[in-house]
Amino acid sequence: MKQIEFENRYGPFWGEMETFFNSVDQQTPEQIAEFPKNYRRLCQHLAMAKSRRYAAGLVSRLNVLVQKGYEALYGQSINNQSSIIAFLLYGFPAVLRSNARYLWAAAIVFVLPYAAIMIACMLNDQIIYSVMDASQVRSMESMYDPELRKFGRERQSSTDIYMFGHYIQNNISIGFRSFAMGIFLGIGSLFILGYNGLVIGGVSGHLTSLGYVDTFYPFVVGHGSFELTAIVFSGAAGLKLGFSLLAPGSLTRGKALQLAAKDAIKIMYGVFVMLFIAAFIEAFWSSSSSLPNAVKYGVGAILWILVYYYCFFFARDRVAHYQRQHATQ
Amino acid sequence: MKIDTVALIETPEGTDLHADLAGLLPRTLAYIIDFLIRVGIIIVVWVISLLLGGLGTGIFLIAYFILEWWYPVLFEVYRDGQTWGKKAYKIKVVNDDLTPVGFGPSLIRNLLRSADFFPLFYAVGILSVVFTARFQRLGDLAAGTIVIYSEPDSYDSSALDQVEAVAPAQLINEDQQLAFVNFALNRGKMSKDRQEEIAEIIRPRLPLNVDKASDYVRGVGKWLLGAR
User: Fold this and answer.
1) A162 → closest Cβ in B57, B138, B143
2) Given the DSSP bridges, would you call strands B16-20 and B6-10 parallel, antiparallel or unpaired?
3) What are the tens digits of pLDDT across the range A187-211?
4) Strand pairing class (B145-149; B91-95)
5) If you placed Cys at A283, which of A164, B82, B147, B159 could pair as Cys (CB 3.0 to 4.6 Å)?
6) What are the extents of the domains in chain B?
7) How many Å lie between the alpha carbon of A65 and the closest alpha carbon of chain B?
8) DSSP 3-state assignment of B17?
9) Under a CB-based contact definition with an 8 Å cutoff, are residues A242 and A189 in contact?
10) Which residues share a beta bridge with B149?
11) Structural domain boundaries in chain A
12) Is the pTM of this model over 0.90?
């Protein structure tokens, strides 16, 4: 069959299908019932047009039609995904628990430098200058100097919102980056985790040795549970990416990376929520100077316990159930 | 390695779908447009924030965060794989099986932007796009996404209406037939002079009585399509 005859014979059908795809709201039930049959017919026409070597323009017109049909038939709808609440209750703990070895690795890479430099800074007050420059050290000292703190006066709420924005922008970006940099065989995540461990550990050790204990620890104890844990989680997600490239197993590296990313991004959903909560606590709770330290320590301790209980012990059966239901194929 | 700008995806019906992959240049230009749009928005937010003091700075930082990380994700998921920049260059992000991109893959490819940006100006991403068969940056590789042209050239055979079919004077093989047909159908996109110039290339092989080479080639094309 020559191309012109082919076009004349099936042109009206293609036109109908074009209107069908372009007017999603006006599709009648009969049209929808007929759709799979019509789609297979389009596939056949495309295959014929290709094997008969009809003009490129016609082939590409049919290709567009088949692609639209393919999307309609096989594309997943956004509503298909499980609800956000179910994910936060069970999905996030499930993905954490099934990736425990990456969490352990990331925690070690963060906590060891943290502890080592903290002890070093408490023994020697010059060590801090090896991870921060002098002006940073001065501004950090003045932030927590009990002499300079204006007790009894609340910070203005507009300053709180400013700091909230700052923590959102700064801390969540760090979390996102320590995930992304993991694609370089994990090295980027290791570096960001270790570096943050050094800086935060250095600050804690230095301020402890200066005796600023009553200003520093009540401030950090509240949001630290969410913030430090989430930073470790994001590094773990990055390590998972990197490890999939180093040891892809029986898969190709590309496929292994995609599977790892599918899981790792679920960790990042949770990291995002945790860092958001941390920013909120840090801006509106930790900074408050009118709350007694005992209250801050008490609430801080409860938050630490809650975070770890939720991540690793909460609703074991239902989390395991969720995991089986949503296992990555 | 075979280098091709066409991605073939086999559907369950056994038909090959094809998509034209977008290369480095349109993607870079689309990115620059998006970048300028984001800079424009952030300047507006900044000016407003100056009027609001500390509260304003907080809002500014949150807006900056959203524009940096979520702008592409929201567009790709809710606007059919296209940011404004991509729309301007008629390209879009899809899964590598050509289905529309969902929230997870879109977030993966956009968080990994910071790895593609490393160490400066998307150096890693550019190398990755240039050296992978389907022009994917690291974010695309991890998310399983590709960037394709969203609108193939529209097909319109009415260009042939005024042409008279001419039977070819000699035997022509399959590839040559295809060349004739495609020339005949591609009329609208080239200037008249350029069409003439291309058709003149085969002048030595044309019958002597042919006056305008382009009319002859188009006529043969129409004849090959089945018109008599």
Assistant:
1) B57
2) antiparallel
3) 999 999 999 999 999 999 999 998 8
4) antiparallel
5) A164
6) 6-149, 157-225
7) 10
8) strand
9) yes
10) B91
11) 3-75, 84-325
12) no
